[in-house]
Amino acid sequence: MLAYKTSPVLQIFYGISSPWAYLGAPRAIAIANRNGADAILRPIRVIEANGGIPLRSRPNARQVYHEVELDRWRRFLGIPLNLRPKFYPCRTIELAAQAVIAIQKAGLDAPSFSFAVQRALWAEDRDIADMDTLRTIARATIGENAVGFVVDPQPAAVVAEWEGNLAEAERIGIFGTPTYVIDGELFWGQDRLDFVDRTLKAQAGAEKSAKELHNG
Predict the structure, then answer these.
(1) 38: helix, coil or strand?
(2) Cα separation of 210 and 216, whole Å?
(3) φ/ψ of residue 168, rounded to 5
(4) SS3 per residue for 134-160
(5) What does 75-102 look like in DSSP terms, one character per residue?
(6) Domains and CATH numbers, the chain
(7) Tens digit of pLDDT for each residue in 161-203?
(8) I need a surface site. Which of 20, 151, 161, 165 has the fewest CB within 10 A?
(9) Residue among 26, 187, 166 at smallest CA distance from 93
C-alpha cells in the first residue's frame, strides 16, 4: 500500500531577536494551522558565513531605512513594536533561543512562548537575556510546568539542537531571518509568507489528488 504524508512541515528558521521574525510569527503559525502543516521552530542567529549582516554592522543608511520599513509594517499589521527597544541589540539570544528549543522538545506550546519573548523585547522593553524574565514569560504563557525548561546551561541535547540548527541553516543557504523552509525551498522574510501559504496549499492539493487517484 502506498503511504502518504498526512502533514506537511513548515520549518521556521529565525533569530528570536529579529523584529521581522516577530512581525511574521502570528501569520506563519496561522498559515501552518490553516494548511494542516506542522510548524517546527528552529531558532538561529544571523548566518554571517552566507552573507548575513547583523543590523548594527550595516551602513547607517540601511539602518535608517530599516526603521522606515519597520514602521510601515507595524502599522500595516497592527502589531505593537518599538522602533528602538531598550534591550536591543540583546546581550545574548542563546538563553531565549535554547529555551524555545527545550520547550518545543517537551511538547509544550513553543510558538506562544517564542512570540511572547519576541513581544517582550520589541513591545514591552523587557530584557530577554535575563533568566528571570524568561521564566516569568514561560509561566505566563504556558504554566508552571514550563519554567523548568528555562535553565542555564541547557541539557546537552538542547545545545546540540541549537548548534544543529545553525549548521543546517548554513548548509542550506540561509543568511537572514526569518527564513521559512518547505521541502528544501527557502522563503526569506515575513513578506514572503503569501508564497509560503500558496506553496502549502499547492502541496495539499497535490496530495489530495494523489489520494483520490489511488483510491479511485
Answers:
(1) strand
(2) 10
(3) -70, -40
(4) HHHHHHHHCCHHHHCCCCCCCCHHHHH
(5) HHHT----SS-TT-S-S-SHHHHHHHHH
(6) 9-211 (3.40.30.10)
(7) 999 999 999 999 999 999 999 999 999 999 999 999 999 999 8
(8) 151
(9) 166
> Are the C-beta atoms of residues 180 and 193 closer than 8 Å to each other?
yes
Measure the CA–CA gap between 41 and 152, rounded to whole angstroms: 20
Q: Across the strands, what pairs with 14?
A: 43
- For the beta sheet containing 38-43, the strands, ordered from the edge strand earlier in sequence to the opposite edge, are 38-43, 9-14, 179-182, 185-188
- Indicate the residue type of 177: T
3-state helix, strand, coil in the chain (%, to 5): 55, 10, 35
CA pair distance 15, 167, nearest whole angstrom = 14
Residues 47 and 183: their CA atoms lie apart, in Å, by 20
Residues 6 or more apart whose CB falls under 8 angstroms from that of 89 comprise: 17, 54, 55, 56
Report residue 66 as a C-alpha cell. Answer: 530599516
CA atoms 67, 25, 150, 92: torsion sign: negative
Peptide bond into 178 cis (omega under 30): yes
CA distance 93 to 35: 30
Q: Which of 88, 89, 114, 158 is nearest to 13 (CA)?
A: 114
* 72-124 pLDDT, tens digit each: 999 999 999 999 999 999 999 999 999 999 999 999 999 999 999 999 999 99
